Amino acid sequence: MFTLSAFSDEISPDPREQVAVLKGCNVRHIEFRSIHKTNVLALSDDQVKEFKKLLDGEGFKLSAIGSPIGKVAVDAPFEPHLDRFKRAVELCGVFGTPNIRVFSFYPPGNDPNFDPANWPAHRGEVMRRLSVLAEAAAASKVTLFHENEHRIYGDSPERVADIFATVNSPALRAAYDAANYVFGNYDPVDGWERTKAFTAHFHIKDWKRNWKEIGTGHENGVLAGHGDGNIPHSIRAAVQAGYRGFAVLEPHLRGGGPTGGVTGADLFPVAVEAFRKILRDCGGNEG
After folding, report:
1. Judging by DSSP bridges, how do beta strands 38-39 and 34-35 pair with one another?
2. DSSP letter assigned to residue 265
3. pLDDT for 225-272, tens place per residue?
4. 95 and 65 in contact (C-beta within 8 Å)?
5. How far is CA 18 from CA 65, 224, 229, in A?
6. How do the domains of the chain map onto residue ranges?
7. CA distance 206 to 204
8. Model confidence over 202-227: pLDDT tens digits?
9. CATH classification of 2-281, choosing from 3.40.1190.20, 3.40.980.10, 3.30.70.260, 3.20.20.150?
């Protein structure tokens, strides 16, 4: 049973427009990443209170806090980042969600030319930090969903599997994103097969492997089922396994980057229906 949610900041920075579009799509959950072009963890208490009032009034809930936790260099000071994590946990209580999206750290110095072959030298610190976060999450009764984002330690199927085998905590689960594997030039089916036992969350976007050659110079996603993410493979397997959880629309149809993406109010409903078709074709149901 799949419950649809959305990174609604891809619709508009305006939370009221986000909610209006999702209501039209019959989607009543949000993965809360930003409003007013401000990241969820940087919002003031008053902004949080106002957004919560809007959600309550419209009958919306959150699938997760779409935090940027773990999206810093692995050699950056960790204590300030833990303070940001505490804010994410606090917001879980405010919004009534037990879930936080996280990452597994950029290379030292956030070096854009870092050779992934050098990750073994930093693996121990990655695992230490993730273990600290997982322990804190367990103590707070929240679950962390690790997204396989480009350039972080856990961007390859092998390293994502390594994270779950090493940290080995029920408070740390996988958010499977097929498009991110394609973008990083990895096989999304391999990514699914290696991590399906830990997957408890889906991010839905698709990508063409040769996007640099066929695109417009922007890093654009495509409708689910129209790229090389082989999304039906994972959805069909999840349906057969009795999956009960969220599928979060993050289409990036007009571009995307490290802090989010853009789809627009006009294209977001199209993206929702593209995934619904996949879900129906795979024998799945919405909850």
Report:
1. antiparallel
2. T
3. 999 999 999 999 999 999 999 999 999 999 888 888 999 999 999 999
4. yes
5. 16, 20, 26
6. 2-281
7. 7
8. 999 999 987 666 554 446 899 999 99
9. 3.20.20.150
